[in-house]
Design a protein that fits this description.
With 145 residues, this protein is an alpha+beta fold. The chain contains 5 helices and 3 strands. It has a 3-stranded antiparallel sheet, with helices on one face. Helix 2 runs parallel beside helix 5. The structure holds zinc ion.
Length: 145
Amino acid sequence: MLNHLYSEIILENSRNTKNRTEMKAPSRVERGHNPNCGDDLTLMVKLQDDVIVDASFIGTGCAISTASMSLMIDLVKGKSIDEAQQMANVFLGMIQGNALSDSDLQLLKDCVVFQSLKDMPARVKCGTLGWHCLLQVVQDVAPGA
Ligand code: ZN
């Protein structure tokens, strides 16, 4: 199960509404749906050249899916598409049980709280939903990446 500290970070971020807002004229919109849990979130991204200058999300989902989406947005804002893709790969690898190097830990920051999802298979789709939306955006922008 999630330990106390991790649960608090997740709860706090699931209630945080600063990233939960509809964006005007987003460059990319990507909806993620997890019917097992009822999560239905849409990621909105504004790109300038290959940099994510802004991101937000709308929709409804459980604490884990919304907290993960919101923390991911904090992490990738201001980053290039390449950096965002690298973060997504490290995050998804972590959920699959990969060990994290020091540079991986620095890269993911607070998003490492979701590491415990690897022991909670039923919630994996909740915690990775936002990241799959992000990967889809990355692939749309950089085909073959
Ligand atoms: Zn969920």
